[in-house]
Amino acid sequence: MINIICEISKYLIILFMILYTVKCFSVMSSGDEEIKRKKLNKQIVYVFVIHFLCYLTMYLRLGTMKILVFYGVQIFVAVFYMLIYHSIYKESSRLLTNNCAFMLLIGYTILTRLNFNLAVKQFILATVGLFISAFIPWIMLKWKRLKEHGIAYGIIGLFMLLTVFIPRVGVEIYGSRNWIKIGPVSMQPMEFVKILFVFFVASMLVKANTFGDLMLNAIISAAFMGVLVLEKDLGAAVIFYITYVCMVYLATSRAIFFFGGISLGAGAIFIGYQLFKDTLFRHVMVRVAAWQDPFAHIDDSGYQLSQSLFAMGTGGYMGSGLTTGKANTIPVSESDFIFSAICEELGVIFGLALILVLVSVFISFVNVAMKCKSPFYKYVSFGFGMIYIIQALLNIGGVTKFIPSTGVTLPLISNGLSSVLSTLIIFGVVQGVYVISNKEAIKHEKEKERIQSVMQGTYPGGRVSPKRERTLPKQPN
Fold it and tell me: Fewer CB within 10 Å: C terminus or N terminus of the chain?
């Protein structure tokens, strides 16, 4: 009986995942607010159904009561957070909140299957992160001068990156010196620096009036990427560089900056690879060799990627089912290679739908940017959208052998304090931009209605004097 329930649950999980993914895109195309609200309500129901079926499967197969307790606590926090958040920020985006909750819950689910203690730790840290990020829209509404501190963002960001070179503080892991460890706490400064980097570039682009201003911005931005190269964190360097090029293109609308930037970056990678492949980037050479033919190096450098490919191939389209696969045999499956574990046990169809959800989050970020009238907030939202999608694609591309592994995590799903907290901050900032834009739109609409009523003589204060009327903007015929 248990096997029958678990097997049915497996197919239902895929079905509701498809329905959730469809809603991610149909919500964005809905013009009617009532229809949109109903779709968002259905979407969050799908999230909770997927989450329930996953934990039901794990409980039935493992028979551990702590799994049910952990499930209940997650649901309580998720429901409480969404109700309180949207009661405080009535103009916030429910689609972003739904997607944030969905990815966190999927992350908890897979981590529970892989390592229960890690899942609990991730849940506690993410809950703290949700609480911290909940204040961000309020801070953005109160503090109107965020765009005026561009140089400060740059200096603080560079200093944080350089902390990895402090003796006994900086730590090298998997060939890259991009971690710091202070007592029992380990973190990647880069995860928080990318937030400062986007704020820096956005504020400098707002002030840029000449080619010289753009060059100053480019030089300081290049310093960020230079430090990341010295850390041997090429994945982060790629994320920063592509984000910078796209933000400059958005600000200038000049194709030469986009294509020139991409060409310059490709040339720098080629030259750096040829000059330093046997010294500075030796660990990268190992990853490239493993990527080219993982099965030829299956006993050493290609073992991780080979196991990843085996896992996805074994799971197939429908997956082997939670707890029945061998996801634990994939090295670092709880962080860098968590997508492989998802595909093995929940199915490749689930994995493909997850990719579409990640793309929908990026589109939501870009939509917020395009609707924003403030250039600074427009660049910030777009920059965070680029950071998010590039990181997600680098992670998935690495585990599927599409590109060499870069060692970046899957946002909000992979295990990791730095990654989860920084991504929650990014979501909080974009929500803040969304709230600000909606408040401005409502204010603008009310002012427009007031002017129309004054011109028509229906304003409660009566028709204004002829002298005042001449100062009001003319209405179109």
Answer: C
Q: Residue 172, SS3? A: strand
Nearest to 357 by CA among 6, 50, 82, 7: 50
3-state secondary structure 86-146: HHHCCCCCHHHHHHHHHHHHHHHHHHHHHCHHHHHHHHHHHHHHHHHHCCHHHHHHHCCCH
Looking at residue 299, its pLDDT comes to 81
How far, in Å, CA of 74 to CA of 82, rounded? 12
For 171, the token pair is 């730590």
Neighbours of 100 (CB within 10 A): 26
DSSP structure class, residue 275: H
Which of these, 437, 447, 429, 442, lies nearest to 370 by C-alpha position?
Answer: 437
Is the Cβ–Cβ distance between 427 and 133 less than 8 Å? Answer: yes
Tokens 């946002």 sit on residue: 411
Q: What is the dihedral of CA 135, 186, 409, 73, to 10 degrees?
A: -60
Give 176's Cβ-side CA count (13 Å radius). 23
Which pLDDT belongs to residue 447?
66
Residues contacting residue 39 through CB under 8 Å, at least 6 positions apart = 23, 26, 27, 30
Q: Which two tokens stand for residue 205?
A: 């682009």
Contact 90, 33 (CB under 8 A): no
In terms of Cα–Cα distance, which of 326, 394, 335 is closest to 122? 335
**pTM of the full predicted structure?**
0.89
**Helices 303-315, 282-292: crossing angle, 10 deg rounding:** 40
Residue numbers of the chain with a pLDDT score lower than 70:
174-175, 273, 275-283, 444-445, 447, 456-477
Cα separation, 447 vs 341, whole angstroms: 53
Cβ within 8 Å of residue 32, ≥6 positions away:
none
- Residue carrying structure tokens 């030089």: 219
